[in-house]
Amino acid sequence: MCFNSFFFLFFFMLINFFFFVYFIMNGLSVFFEWEIISFNSMSIVMSILLDWMSLLFMMFVSLISSVVIFYSKSYMNSELNLNRFIILVLMFVFSMVLLIISPNLISILLGWDGLGLISYCLVIYYQNLKSYNAGMLTALSNRIGDVMILMIICWVMNYGSWNYIFYFDFMKNDYVMFIISFMIIIAAMTKSAQIPFSSWLPAAMAAPTPVSALVHSSTLVTAGVYLLIRFNYLLIDMFFFKVLLFLSILTMFMSGISANYEFDLKKIIALSTLSQLGLMMSILSLGFPDIAFFHLLTHAMFKALLFMCAGVIIHMMNDIQDIRYMGGLSLYIPLTSLCLNISNLSLCGIPFLSGFYSKDLILEMVSFNSFNLMVFILFYLSTGLTVFYTFRLIMYVMINDFNLMMIYNLYDEDYIMLNSMFVLLFMSLLSGSFLSWFIFSYPYMIYLPFNLKLMVIYVSILGSILGFMVSNMGIYSLNKLLLSYNLSSFLCLMWFMPNLSTYGLSYIYLNFSQILFKNIDMGWSEIYSGKGIFNILKNYSVFYNIYQMNNFKIYLFSFILWFMILFIFFFI
Amino acid sequence: MLTNNNSNKMFFLFILFFSTLISISSNSWFGCWIGLEINLLSFIPLISNSKNLLSVETSLKYFLTQSLASINFLFMILIKFSLLKNFDMNNIISIMMNSSLLMKMGSAPFHFWFPNIVEGLSWMNNFMLMTWQKISPMILLSYYFNKNFLIFMIIMNLIIGSLGGLNQTSLRKLLAFSSINNLGWMIFSIMISENLWLFYFLIYSMMIFMMISLFFLMNMYFMNQLFINNMNFFIKLNLLINFLSLGGLPPFMGFMPKWIIINFLLINKFYFLTFIFMMTSLIIIYYYIRIIYSSFMFNYFKMKWVNLLMKNNMSLINLSSFISISSMILSTFIFM
Lengths: 572, 336
Known about the structure:
Number of helices of chain A: 22
Order of helices and strands of chain A: HEEHHHHHHHHHHHHHHHHHHHHH
Largest sheet of chain B: none
Number of domains of chain B: 1
Structural class of chain A: mainly alpha
Radius of gyration of chain A: 31 Å
Shape of chain A: globular
Radius of gyration of chain B: 20 Å
Helix content of chain A: over 70%
Strand content of chain A: under 5%
Number of domains of chain A: 2
Oligomer: heterodimer
């Protein structure tokens, strides 16, 4: 099953690539429409929009999913129900493709809901309590977005059809479009885990690593960004876009800080994903949808690669994800550490890897156009924080001394996993330049003073030095986290926002429902229905039997008595 | 009656049928009374069996109650003829005539003999008692009834039929109380129209027949006997379906007459009476389900050393289950 789906998705990727090149070179865009049923004045139509953006995104999604399925052949080879896992992944890819190609809100809803449900199934795949809780958090946070899209469908019915693409030019200043823009921004924020809804993304790391590589790095979380890119014409001068800017740069900043305090390997990568998502959302809300799309695609490449390397390392460390138990791995697993290094450096924006093209372009656009000081500071600070946690991760995992665990298995020759990582390595090296040559038909005009241009490098160097210094831990080092305990706990627990989604919502209601259950369900309603009525009926029946089991003559005599009474009434 | 062979029974059975027909189709009240007496006289030899002390006592009790009721009936007829020349429905005479007929039927509040006697009869005699013996008193009731008195009697029937059966373990007494409850429905139906009563009565007697024949074949008289023998699946299914049908649950046959009677209740604006019909029906279903619930669960009570095999008469059981389930749907084909 793994091989079949891998080949199918790989050839699907090649077909998409071919059509993408053809469409973008000739400026084509195709709109299919299939009328399923038409009755009097109502018609149900299925439409598919293929332009270069959807073909390119489909190509990337199918590439990553084919590689991930091939990788999971070896990663999950001890799984009994591997077919079930592969089928879930394939259904996920199908929902994502449906979301990408649809110009129509109903099929977007189908893809969106499918994504939410299947990601729930995949997060709870290992059936323990932590996965169940994580899955519940994921599913319910995504559900808010689903509700928003349902309400948008309801509001868009004002215009007569659900093909939103046609209405942007004509209806921009309508009150209805104002409401729709508000709701679509909230829907995208739940899916892409921006600030009020950001607690599910680190929690969803309870999923198996191939799932994290596919879902939580490149496809599910970018669905929100993709939706906003499609709706960009509508949103571009709305008020809520500025709110989105504010929240997304805060997300970027917060997750960058929290990643520095984390010690779980997958959570660091998850928070890194969250930070890059904030970056994508913020550059989108500044008005540059194509740069956001570009960063989405390059980020997908190296983040998926990073997750897969993390999966290899977790397998080698006997399923331990804590980086304090790892160290010095660069000496022992050269090929995996090659992939890990290249993806990490691409994440930081080291020149001429793929991440550089998108990140540097973003930062230069932020510097070139005049935005306010907070935007500027937080962008550069978050870039520095990215380098900070990346270098900290590299120091802990690969450079410091080997923390000898009792059981380890440094096996680097698993060529199934390595070959899949090499495909993504190749793409992660080259996709930056390749995409920039395709997507941008003319370069952006940027004219910056010297120090502002080098600001990126200054911040990166500062971040790397800090990352190196923080990870110099020895046996006699003082635990500085305890010195600033309040501030540290605030910063490392994602500014206490997960409590909004978990304790804050459930504690009051669970308390109240316990009171209700004890007093009413197991209390008064047993007396007034249920047991109480049964007791009453039983007592009546016992009482009746006293009259039933009686002397026979009394029955006959009572009959005569009745007649005598009636006679007396008759004759008076 | 010294020997107990079938030719005796056939003879008295024939006279029993004939007596009811006399009673129904007579021109005067006197003829009705004659029919009732012949009914009594021909039923007694059917149920008495001189070798069994219990059945002798039962037939004696039956004779006493029925003859008392018949005497009263005759007396009321004579008073009506002699004292009241006019045909006045809402009168005490009608109450007294109705009371004696109700005692003949075994309806509340004159029903106290009924569970006792039912306890002493065999299943087939019970079947006769519960179905055929109700025909002539019912129809005579429809000739001269007092509406308010009968509605009060209906309510008493329903309540006693439901509450009395809660504390029983003998299957015969259970069916007796269920019969008292169904008498309530039937008295109401005869107040509406005789056709409606016929409909209810036919379906009720068919259901009772299926149930009693099942108990007769398995030779079961008490509730604990249900669990002692190993019934195979179809017998349990049949038991389940028939009991639920008797209780009036929708897809089965027994729902239809109750539904139609509720329809007439609501048309005639008997709202509170409808409520009492519903609630007592619920209690009755409770004790039916109490009998059969262990038979349709996956983990049912089973004895290891008794193996009951039904080799013949399976066709009867399958046919009765089929009729109970499909009657509602098939009846729509009849009237198309």
